[in-house]
Amino acid sequence: MKKFITTLRDIFQIKELRDRIFYTLGFLAVFRLGSFILLPGLDPEIVSAAAGNPSNDLMGFLDTLLGGAFSRVSIFALGIMPYISASIVVQLLGMAVPYFQRLQKEGESGRKKINQITRVLTIAITLAQSSAYLATSVPEGAVIVSQQFFYVSSVILLTAGTVFCMWLGERITDKGIGNGISMLIMIGIISALPAAIMQEIDSNSNALWLVIELIMMFFVIMGVVLLTTAIRKVPVQYAKQIVGAGGKKKSFKTGQRSYIPLKVNAANVMPIIFAQSLMFLPSLIAGLFAETSDTAVWIANNFSDYTSVAYNTTFATLIILFTYFYTAITINPDQMADDLKRNNAFIPGVKPGEATSHYISLILDKITLPSAIFLAVIAVLPAFAQYANVTASLAPFFGGTSLIIMVGVILDTIQQIDSYLLMNSYDGMMQSGNVKGRQNVAIA
CA 322, CA 308: separation in Å to the nearest integer? Predict the structure, then answer.
């Protein structure tokens, strides 16, 4: 406890870190406030009565991810989800379209162009999703103005709300702590946790079963933490060049030893977010043909229930595929092999160049498969929790998207805070003169 208090004191003694934390809290407060602002033209009482009764389990699950804004029909009802969908599309284009591949290689200028394309695509996706959302999620009889005026104005407001959420996420990333987009999703999830716990306590009078639930949740959290922090160390040696008296290179000898830390879950939370963003599409598309096709009715029913076998099988498969996909686009073994070769470094027992690239790819394949499977298992645990009579409001916190996002974002934020504390510690040592051997050298 004393160490915790000391850490808090050190955090608030660093001005830059303190400012970033306050910036983050302020932006998150604005985001939460916007999730309670109702779309104009709706009867608040009707919307409030329907907010706690989603039309299906999938809608309730999405409502958990969005902190209740989805069922409240707020201006932030779609949240940051259209931006995530746009990011998926752009990254897929980066794998297949030469233009996007060139942009990825252009450094900072290419990244800015990709970000701009993603923003424009976000607006287009939001316009489509907002129309579908208004047609399916607005409670019957809640519209108290002209239907045409309501739908036109609401599409504009929902699109503006998503763009504003996107802007908030970028500001948190630039001026705050942590990844802004993930932070917005996390705060929406956490906001539902206290009410979910209270509902579980009220609905379950068996104290022993509540203790068992907490123990199970603890072990699931520990498993997610281990998955998130696990790394595979690839040993690396640096060759030290020996130069003769005449300035000619004579030989190399073994120099400093190090390692490449390959994360077991290199894709982090992104496969879950990507897969979740796509899971509403089957039921949405099938709903358009429900009146003419029995198959469409089956798809709509099963993919609207996040505890169904079809939903969880598809969800787990998408997570495994996206884990491989995101690992492939974030880690480039060829580039890593080239960087090692340029720095006179090599992996013991492996030839530089193509052999090193193949060796790193083989390791990635070996560690990505168990990571993807474990990630998929964690993602479908809420369905099993609900089968075990855990309330629908608390079940998402037994694993799945909610827990993985929370753990991943919290660990990432803690790492950034630790980096600031470590940097401040080094600065303090330099200013106090505690670094031995440091001399002031005048440069003419």
Answer: 21
Task: Tell me the one-letter amino acid at 389.
Answer: N
**Burial (Cβ within 10 Å: 0-12, 13-18, ≥19) of residue 194:** exposed
Which residue is associated with the tokens 């779609």? Answer: 78
Contacts of 378 (CB under 8 A, 6+ apart): 220, 223, 224, 227, 399, 400, 403, 404
Residues 86 and 182 in one domain: yes
Encode pLDDT of 331-384 as tens digits. 888 888 888 888 888 888 888 888 888 999 999 988 998 889 988 888 888 888
Confidence of residue 156 (pLDDT cuts 50, 70, 90): very high
Q: In sequence order, which ranges of 97-206 are alpha helices (DSSP H)?
A: 98-104, 108-137, 147-175, 180-190, 193-203
Structure tokens at 380: 């479908």
Is residue 141 located within the same domain as residue 287? no
129 in the same domain as 221: no
Co-location of 186 and 208 in the same domain = no
Q: Can you state the angle between helices 400-432 and 207-229, rounded to 10 degrees?
A: 60
